[in-house]
Specification:
InterPro entries: CDP-alcohol_PTase-I, CDP-diaglyc--ser_O-PTrfase, CDP-OH_P_trans, CDP-OH_PTrfase_TM_dom, CDP_ALCOHOL_P_TRANSF_CS. By secondary structure, the protein is mainly α. About 70% of the residues lie in helices and about 0% in strands. It is built from eleven helices and two strands; from the N terminus they run αααααβααβαααα. The protein has a two-stranded antiparallel sheet with strand order 1-2. It is globular, with a radius of gyration of 20 Å.
């Protein structure tokens, strides 16, 4: 009896705020994905696409909060992957299915959407067991989800076959070993200010002239950069910082 009392007593040990806070931020990521799914079922496609973009804000914040408070944990890593699967895998695939692929080729449209979600899950699972320093190996899951969702924001009216091909290719890029730029090495000391200013100007001009089509343009450029083996992260570093040994980075 004393053994069970001690076990129950230890289970009641309260978690510290530094352990809870990162998971609260991750919850925001997950809730954005679930809310996006709900809006998609109601035919509110553009707000649903924007929620995928809001999810990436929480996805970027949870790691920073964990490092700042020293509250990172294996539970947080697994929870983050589950949230990413919903927000950047399931939500975008259902969104594209509902807007472009319903009724396409019998079950072909559904198969393309399922393939994208499956590749997202595989990409996230691979990250949890394989940590490679330097560039990302394969298109990161958030970038893949944002890329396909940006077609809805841009109002791009692609034929169903073309949209299915986009989903399939994006899914393949996520599970591939094609290197993609990792910007997490950039700091105030390591970044080339002139190049960062030029890139920031491009972002501002893109939204000023392209408006809702700007995300599609920017993420298409990122997707294409991997195929061309152009490393944005390395390009933005100062020359002396490029020769430093890269460390393993968190990425999905």
């Amino acid at each position: 009896m004393s053994f069970f009392r001690r076990k129950r007593g230890s289970a009641r040990k309260p978690l510290e705020f530094r352990q809870i806070a990162p998971n609260m931020v991750t919850s925001g990521n997950l809730l954005c994905g679930v809310f996006s799914l709900m809006l998609t079922t109601q035919g509110m496609f553009v707000p649903a696409a924007w929620l995928v973009f809001f999810a990436v804000i929480f996805d970027g914040m949870d790691g920073k909060v964990a490092r700042m408070l020293g509250g990172g944990s294996q539970f947080g890593l697994e929870f983050d992957s589950l949230a990413d699967l919903v927000s950047f895998g399931v939500a975008p695939s259902i969104l594209i299915f509902q807007t472009s692929l319903r009724g396409f080729g019998g079950l072909l449209g559904a198969a393309a959407a399922c393939f994208f979600a499956l590749c997202t899950a595989l990409r996230l699972a691979r990250f949890n067991v394989v940590h490679v320093p330097g560039p990302f190996q394969g298109l990161p899951a958030p970038a893949g989800g944002l890329f396909v969702s940006s077609f809805v924001l841009a109002g791009a009216d692609l034929p169903a076959g073309a949209m299915a091909a986009v989903l399939a290719l994006t899914g393949f890029l996520m599970i591939s070993s094609i290197p993609y730029a990792n910007l997490k090495r950039l700091t105030k000391r390591s970044a080339d200010r002139r190049k960062c200013l030029a890139l920031s100007s491009l972002l501002v001009l893109s939204f000023a002239f392209l408006r809702n089509a700007a995300p599609l343009f920017l993420f298409f450029a990122y997707v294409l950069s991997g195929l061309l083996h152009f490393d944005w992260g390395r390009w933005l570093l100062r020359p002396e910082a490029r020769d430093e040994e890269p460390r393993s980075h968190e990425a999905r």
